[in-house]
Design a protein that fits this description.
This protein has 177 residues and is of the alpha/beta class. Helices cover 49% and strands 16% of the residues. The protein has a five-stranded parallel sheet with strand order 3-2-1-4-5, with helices on both faces.
Length: 177
């Protein structure tokens, strides 16, 4: 039988429980799943590439057929280098579907043998995105249950100095009024 390798590309900034849900479920479907962190020069990530890789390696260590890697450039080129025959993508809402369908069709045009497999996240993660997690965390809201505890701790460590500075600025401004 042919071994089926899939890649799960994304920025994972930060990794969420929704990502881990797809990784766990994808690990049961594919012989090998490569969580592929995209180096996107157009984005200004909160966590460095090495920080995201480190977190994902720790979070996926229990899955023996999952490994973490980084890449830049076209997903189809990376998939070819990894000898992957599938791309795993999560779809939360209709807006995700429209974007992901365009990407899947373009990938098919560029590499006809590369299949895209869409998975719905578990219901409790259907609204969850890294962008929302960053936004809530930056504004001081609770992200408990949205990300693994390790990620929550790293977010606090990264954002706490900025939150304290903002709080100090607000209190100074309030005292002058």
């Amino acid at each position: 039988m042919k071994k089926v390798t899939a890649i799960y590309p994304g920025s994972f900034d930060p990794p969420t429980n929704g990502h881990l849900d797809l990784i766990e479920r994808g690990s049961k479907i594919f012989d090998e799943l490569v969580v592929a962190i995209l180096r996107n020069p157009e984005k200004d990530p909160l966590f460095s590439l090495s920080e995201r890789r480190s977190m994902l390696e720790a979070l996926t260590s229990e899955f023996h057929n999952v490994r973490v890697d980084t890449f830049d450039g076209l997903t189809v080129d990376y998939a070819a280098r990894m000898k992957a025959s599938a791309v795993l993508r999560g779809i939360r809402a209709l807006s995700d579907y429209e974007y992901e369908l365009q990407m899947a069709l373009m990938n098919r045009k560029l590499q006809p043998k590369l299949e895209t497999v869409f998975m719905m996240p578990a219901e409790q993660y259907s609204y969850l995105s890294s962008r929302l997690v960053r936004e809530v965390a930056k504004l001081g809201g609770s992200i408990a249950g949205l990300v693994p505890e390790m990620v929550e701790q790293r977010l606090r460590e990264k954002l706490e100095p900025a939150l304290k500075l903002e709080s100090a600025r607000k209190s100074k401004t309030g005292k002058r009024a």
